Every structure is written in structure tokens, then in C-alpha cells.
């Protein structure tokens, strides 16, 4: 698939939690339509990094430019970028007091200012895509983990974002539910969406990603297309990590 | 009731045989420890005392209706018979023995029927259980007998003062006439008779809205879409009803002005609590949000202090004369420390104090004035009793306002109640806000909602649901606390009760009056509690 222009540019991004230097000069670009999978040991800062891209975490030094807008303290810029960037969380974070349909239509109605009819129409389309239209009027608490995560994907997609961020979307799921979420993600990738995903699903990385980034100790250690990445990793740390996770 | 040991040599075909081994049973239960033995003896002694008292209890006193001229009627005789102390005691003892026999029989034969199984599990769980059951049933029955004989069988219900005056010396129970004769006072205080229809109208509005709400929330579809309108109608009904009650124009017209000094009784209690709760709610929520605010939008806090000081000097003039201070000191003779500051050092002193305060706020609270204000407000109000707040509203409020403005006494009290209630509400709501996971906030902003939308659509609906029990608890305590307004001269339900008791013809009937007032408070508080449970159920609290 032909990749378009650069939509995410990270340039020497630093972040500290007190004395702890969590992001140590992350520099990379993501092109339109690209699927980037980020792997790495826990505590390496990969989640923090992906969360800086829609400003759930502030970076303290360096530059992040998303879709041509630089993320800074200007609240309007942040709002604008959050409208164009969808995010799916490890813990789903659905709104428990709203039905599935209300969860999905909330942002289109209040942020995009769509009519209720249009928002519901788009919501049902998205629910069809993740294959759970029949759950529209249930509450999140009545769904299984996999279904909840698919609703979360539909909720993010209903805003018609240009970029989707996935922060360990399958880590909180029971094994038999992982596949249904990965299928939804794969379909999304095939539709040409720009995706950044932190995940431990190596199969997904191998088959869907355009690029795999190995992240450790607050920085990118190695980034390559998946076939190359898994076949002959250059760095010692990457090899160690891969040997640890692939031997199970 | 009994420990059964199965005999080992039992070979009978008719099933296992059981033996009642009383000495072993006593050893394992009653005499298993010294404490148990003493407790057992105490229980038996208590039971004996209560049973003896029961046997000796005099027949209940009957009112004039049941025993005219001291001779009981047929109904009176019936009441006397069934409430007779000896008879009641015997019946309880008999029932208790029947229960014990059933349980013992069940244990011995290992055959249980529903009732005996229930008896064993709940009333006759062992020697201590059985004796406690007896003691408590005796106490309950005699308490109920006492209450009934005072409040019903021996009570006089006539309301006309003349017959009551005649009957009072011979009536053994309550004189409920005091309540009936003063029902208007209890309900609305000194509200004028000719305008009472306006109170009825208000009650009608409330009942109509209530009925519509019951339909809209219980029987589903046809009225469901009017729910939102109903909520707004409820809110609009408060000022409307206050307007109807207060009226306007000359006293001769239908809507003549009724000054709030004439409002009283239950009406006043309800008015104060409803306004207090409804108005303090948004203030409390804002305060709770303010206390959690992370805004750092007020930089250079010391500059604010400097600005304030300049304004102060602009208004009152830069200190130009030496100023003398008298600082009172204890344990000193003379007990005053007097010192004089030159204009310059007085100005420096002012600068240091004001800038210092703002610097402290800026340094320790990140210059978050909203948070500072909320914390100071909440902690000050929570550290002060309601009576103090009421006195302050009464005495301090006029000081801050120009002399020409005369504020209604009721309004002052209501403002005090609102200020007080808002602080407690804020803390309750804050509890709910803290229980919402951070992920909810993140998910909301990640889909593009702004801060206000996140709070309104995601955080508050969840937080408020969580604290419904606490909020209703606060409504109930506020409702009961309104009885304190009597201290600042308002005639609420409790104050009316005091005046009613002081009437010449009803002198000395405190028991009846305060029992009635307590019942009224209880009915309202209990209804609120039940309503809260219903709301929780409808909103599905704790479902997810």
C-alpha cells in the first residue's frame, strides 16, 4: 500500500516523572496509512509515549506534530488533535452509565455537533463493522471484555479520526477474546487507517504492521519492517527481548 | 436444644435410634465455661423478673369512651381481657413451651417440618437463644401493651376544650385533642385563615406533580417522554409556590401579602429544607469541583496582593499618620501591649502581610484561587455548628449591607442553611468524584470532549449516582436540623409545638405534643429514605 505524507512527527521528545527520565529523546515519523506496532518490556515508557501523541501525557521537551499541528499548551490545538486521533485503552474505559449506542454517539453529538440521527446511523455502521450491532442498547457492564473493547474501537472510529492509537488493547482480555479484537484491528488496518499500536501480540505485528518499533528505556532501540525485524534484529537488547517472548 | 448421641449398638431395622444425653448436653453448652454459666443464670433471673412483673401488671386504663363513669363497655371489657398482664404472660409462656417442645421433638426424632425447622434455626438456637427469645418476646409484648394503652385504649380524642377539661382528670392515657385542636398551627403556623386556600393550592400543585411523576417513572411508555419536563416543572414549582404563599398587593385582595413572619409549623419546616437542599445542591457541586480543580491559571499571585494593596490605598489613602496598636495580652500587667508605627513602617507592614498571604497561596496551592477558596469555605463552614451559622446570618449579614436594606428574617435563615448545607454537600460529592477512575476522564478527553463536557456528561452523572445514599442522608439531617431555626425566632414545627404546649387549656400535655411532632419528622425522614432506595434501584446503582 502506498504510504502518504508524514502525519505524526516526533522530534527529540523528552519527559520526566520527577527524577525519572521516562522518554529520552524519542524521534520518529509515521506516514499516512502506516501501521506501526510498538513492542518492548514493561516500564520502558512505550505507553507513556503513545499517550503523549494525543496529549494524555505532556512532554516537556522536543516537538510532537500531529497532522500538521504542533502539540503545545494551546488548548485549542489539543482539542483539535484529539478530534482527529482516536484512542483505545487497555481497560476499555467505556462510560458505564451510558448504553453502547450512547457511548458511541456522545462525542459525535457534542464535539462534531452532528444530529442525533446522523450520529446513531454512523454508530450503527461502526457497530456492524465490529460485528456487535445487536448489543447497541445494552450497558457496557452487560458485555464481555472482548465485546467491550470492540465497542471502544467503534466509539473511537465514530469520530472518523485520521489516526488510531491502541494502548495494549488486548492485555486485559481473556485469551479466547483476543482474536475478535485483533480481527477488528486488522480490518481497520486494511481499510487504510494510520495506526500506532502498543501490543504484545507478535502475530498481529508480523502479519499487519508496516513497521515494528522496539522500545526500551525511554527510547526507540530499533525500527524495521516486521519480516526483517523478526528475522534478523540488529541490536542485542532486541534479540534478548524477542528470545524471551518468543520462547513461550 | 439438645445434643443427641447416636447409640453405637443400634442395629434395629427401623432406623438409627437416638438417646438424649442431658448431662453431656449441659456440659457442652451451659457449663462449658464460667462465663456461659453466669450468663445463663442472669438470663433466667431476668426472665423470672419480667414474668413476675407481667403477672402483676394492672389492667390498662380505659378512656371515657371505653369505660364511661368507670364502668367498662363490652369493647372495653374485651380490651381489658386481652391486655391483662397475667393472661398475656401465660400465653407467651405457653407459646414458648410449645415451640421448645416442637424443637426438642424434632431433634430427638430427627424429623423436621417447616415451622419446627424455622424455630430451631432462628428462635431456639440453643439454651441461650431460647431464653433470649423468651425475654425479648415478653419485653416486646409489654412495651406494645403499654404504648397501646396510653396512645389508644386510654386516650381521649375529643378536641373541644370544654369536654377535654372535664375528661382530663379521669383520662388515664393521652389527650390527643391538643393535636386536633391545633392542627392548623402545626400545619402552617399563624398563616391567615382567609388565605389558607393558597396553601391548599400549593399542596395541590405538589400532589399533581407527584402523581404525574409516579406515572412517568413507574408505568412506562405513555408519560416517559415527559420526564424531563416534569423535572423542570418541579424546579419551577418552588418559586411559583413561594410566590403563591407570599402573595403581593394589599391584604384585602385574594393574593394579599402574607409576611414570612406569619409562616410557621410544618409549612415553614418544609420551605426551609426544600430551598436549603435545592439551592445548596449546585453550590455544593461547584465547590466540590472547585476543590479538585487543578487550574493553575492565576500566575504571579504576589502581584494580585500588590494590586489589592494599591486599590486599598486608593480607596482609603496611603498611611500618613503614625498608627497606634493596642494588642491585648493575657498574663501581662498592664494586659495591653501598645506600640506605634510610623507611616512608612505601617505601609511596609501592610505590604508584608498582604503579599505574604498571596505568596503563601501561590506557593503552597500553585496559585489555584478556586481551590483555595473552596477549601477555605468548606473547612470553615464544616468547623462551625449550624446554630452559629444561623446567628451569623442573623447578626452579621445586616452589617455588610447598607442600612436601608431590610432583609427578611426567613431569607437570612435560609441563606444560612444554604451556606451550611453546601459545604457538607461539597464534601459528599467530592467523595463521589474521587471514586471515578482516571480512565473515565482520559477516555472522555480522548474522544474530544472538553473539560466542561467531560465533567457534565461523564464525571458528574457517575459521581452523583455513587453518593445518592450520602446525599439523601444529608437531606434527612438537614430536614431535622431545621428545628434549630427556632433559636433565631422562627416558628417551625418544633417551636410551634412549644407554643402549643404553653396554651392555658392544654397546659402540661408535652408527651402528646412531642410524640406527635416526632412522628411527623419520622414520617418525612423515613419517606426520604425509602425514596432514595427507589431512586438507587431505578438508576441501577451498583449494577455495573
Description:
- The complex is a heterodimer of chains A (248) and B (544).
- Chain A has one domain (6-97, 163-246): 3-Layer(aba) Sandwich (Rossmann fold), CATH 3.40.50.300.
- Chain A has nine helices and ten strands.
- Chain A has helices at 46-52, 75-84, 100-110, 116-129, 145-158, 175-190, 202-208, 226-231, 236-246, and strands spanning 6-17, 20-31, 35-39, 61-66, 69-70, 85-88, 163-167, 194-198, 211-216, 219-224.
- Chain A has a six-stranded mixed sheet with strand order 6-7-8-3-9-10, with helices on both faces. A four-stranded antiparallel sheet of chain A has the order 2-1-4-5, with helices on one face.
- In chain A, helix 6 links the parallel strand 7 and strand 8.
- The radius of gyration of chain A is 18 Å and the shape is globular.
- The mean pLDDT of chain A is 91.
- In chain B, strands 1-2 form a two-stranded antiparallel sheet.
- In chain B, strand 3 (323-328) and strand 4 (336-341) form a beta hairpin.
- In chain B, helix 22 runs antiparallel to helix 23 (510-539).
- The longest helix of chain B is centred in the C-terminal third of the chain and has 30 residues, at 510-539.
- Mean pLDDT of chain B is 85; it is low at 1-15.
- Chains A and B meet through helix 2, strand 6, helix 3 and helix 5 of A and helix 19 and helix 20 of B.
Amino acid at each position: 500500500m502506498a504510504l502518504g505524507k508524514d502525519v505524526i512527527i516526533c522530534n527529540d521528545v523528552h519527559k520526566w516523572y520527577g527524577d525519572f527520565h521516562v522518554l529520552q529523546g524519542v524521534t520518529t515519523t509515521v506516514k499516512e496509512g502506516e501501521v506501526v506496532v510498538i513492542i518492548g518490556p514493561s516500564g520502558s515508557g512505550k505507553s507513556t509515549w503513545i499517550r503523549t501523541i494525543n496529549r494524555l501525557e505532556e512532554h516537556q521537551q522536543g516537538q510532537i506534530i500531529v497532522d500538521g499541528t504542533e502539540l503545545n499548551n494551546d488548548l485549542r490545538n489539543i482539542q483539535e488533535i484529539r478530534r482527529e486521533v482516536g484512542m483505545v485503552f487497555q481497560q476499555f474505559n467505556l462510560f458505564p452509565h451510558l448504553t453502547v449506542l450512547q457511548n458511541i454517539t456522545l462525542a459525535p453529538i457534542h464535539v462534531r455537533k452532528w444530529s442525533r440521527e446522523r450520529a446513531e446511523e454512523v454508530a450503527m455502521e461502526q457497530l456492524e463493522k465490529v460485528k456487535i450491532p445487536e448489543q447497541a442498547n445494552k450497558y457496557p457492564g452487560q458485555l464481555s471484555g472482548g465485546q467491550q473493547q470492540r465497542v471502544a474501537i467503534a466509539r473511537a472510529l465514530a469520530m472518523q479520526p485520521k489516526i488510531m492509537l491502541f494502548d495494549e488493547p488486548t492485555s486485559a482480555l481473556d485469551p479466547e477474546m483476543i482474536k475478535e479484537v485483533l480481527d477488528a484491528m486488522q480490518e481497520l488496518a486494511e481499510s487504510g487507517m494510520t495506526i500506532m499500536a502498543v501490543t504484545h501480540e507478535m502475530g498481529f505485528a508480523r502479519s499487519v504492521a508496516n513497521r515494528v518499533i522496539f522500545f526500551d528505556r525511554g527510547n526507540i532501540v530499533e525500527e524495521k519492517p516486521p519480516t526483517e525485524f523478526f528475522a534478523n534484529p540488529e541490536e542485542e537488547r532486541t534479540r534478548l527481548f524477542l528470545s524471551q517472548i518468543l520462547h513461550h | 436444644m439438645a445434643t443427641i448421641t447416636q447409640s453405637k449398638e443400634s442395629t434395629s431395622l427401623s432406623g438409627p435410634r437416638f438417646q438424649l444425653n442431658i448431662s453431656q448436653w449441659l456440659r457442652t453448652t451451659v457449663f462449658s465455661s464460667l462465663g456461659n454459666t453466669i450468663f445463663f443464670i442472669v438470663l433466667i433471673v431476668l426472665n423470672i423478673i419480667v414474668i413476675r412483673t407481667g403477672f402483676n401488671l394492672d389492667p390498662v386504663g380505659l378512656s371515657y369512651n371505653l369505660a364511661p363513669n368507670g364502668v367498662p363497655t363490652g369493647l372495653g371489657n374485651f380490651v381489658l381481657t386481652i391486655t391483662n398482664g397475667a393472661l398475656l404472660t401465660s400465653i407467651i409462656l405457653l407459646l414458648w413451651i410449645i415451640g421448645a417442645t416442637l424443637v426438642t421433638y424434632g431433634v430427638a426424632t430427627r424429623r423436621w417440618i417447616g415451622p419446627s425447622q424455622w424455630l430451631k434455626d432462628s428462635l431456639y438456637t440453643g439454651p441461650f437463644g431460647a431464653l433470649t427469645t423468651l425475654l425479648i418476646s415478653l419485653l416486646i409484648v409489654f412495651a406494645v401493651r403499654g404504648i397501646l394503652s396510653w396512645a389508644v385504649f386510654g386516650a381521649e380524642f375529643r378536641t373541644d376544650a370544654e369536654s377535654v377539661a372535664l375528661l382530663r382528670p379521669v383520662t388515664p392515657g393521652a389527650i390527643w385533642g391538643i393535636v386536633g385542636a391545633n392542627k392548623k398551627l402545626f400545619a402552617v403556623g399563624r398563616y391567615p385563615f382567609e388565605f389558607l386556600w393558597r396553601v391548599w393550592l400549593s399542596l395541590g400543585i405538589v400532589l399533581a406533580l407527584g402523581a404525574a411523576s409516579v406515572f412517568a417513572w413507574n408505568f412506562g411508555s405513555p408519560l416517559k417522554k415527559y420526564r424531563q419536563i416534569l423535572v423542570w416543572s418541579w424546579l419551577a414549582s418552588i418559586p411559583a409556590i413561594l410566590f403563591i404563599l407570599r402573595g403581593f398587593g394589599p391584604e384585602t385582595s385574594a393574593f394579599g401579602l402574607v409576611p414570612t413572619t406569619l409562616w410557621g409549623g410544618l409549612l415553614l419546616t418544609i420551605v426551609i429544607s426544600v430551598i436549603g437542599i435545592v439551592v445548596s445542591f449546585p453550590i455544593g457541586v461547584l465547590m466540590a469541583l472547585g476543590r479538585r480543580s487543578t487550574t493553575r491559571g492565576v500566575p504571579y499571585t504576589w502581584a494580585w496582593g500588590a494590586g489589592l494593596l494599591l486599590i486599598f490605598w486608593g480607596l482609603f489613602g496611603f498611611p500618613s499618620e503614625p498608627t497606634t496598636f493596642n494588642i491585648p495580652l493575657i498574663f501581662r500587667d498592664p494586659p495591653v501591649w501598645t506600640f506605634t508605627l510610623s507611616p512608612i513602617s505601617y505601609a511596609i507592614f501592610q505590604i508584608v502581610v498582604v503579599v505574604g498571604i498571596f505568596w503563601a497561596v501561590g506557593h503552597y496551592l500553585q496559585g489555584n484561587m478556586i481551590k483555595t477558596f473552596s477549601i477555605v469555605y468548606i473547612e470553615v463552614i464544616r468547623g462551625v455548628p449550624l446554630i452559629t451559622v444561623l446567628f451569623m446570618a442573623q447578626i452579621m449579614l445586616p452589617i455588610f449591607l447598607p442600612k436601608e436594606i431590610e432583609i427578611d428574617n426567613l431569607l437570612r435563615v435560609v441563606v444560612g442553611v444554604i451556606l451550611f448545607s453546601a459545604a457538607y454537600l461539597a464534601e459528599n460529592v467530592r467523595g463521589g468524584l474521587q471514586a471515578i477512575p482516571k480512565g473515565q476522564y482520559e477516555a472522555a478527553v480522548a474522544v474530544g470532549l472538553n473539560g466542561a463536557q467531560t465533567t457534565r456528561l461523564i464525571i458528574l452523572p457517575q459521581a452523583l449516582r455513587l453518593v445518592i445514599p450520602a446525599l439523601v442522608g444529608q437531606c434527612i439531617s438537614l430536614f431535622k436540623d431545621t428545628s434549630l431555626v427556632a433559636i433565631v425566632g422562627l416558628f417551625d414545627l418544633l417551636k410551634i409545638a412549644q407554643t402549643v404546649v404553653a396554651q392555658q387549656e392544654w397546659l402540661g400535655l408535652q408527651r402528646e405534643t412531642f410524640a406527635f411532632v416526632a412522628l411527623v419528622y419520622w414520617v418525612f425522614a423515613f419517606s426520604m429514605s425509602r425514596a432514595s432506595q427507589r431512586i438507587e434501584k431505578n438508576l441501577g446503582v451498583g449494577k455495573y
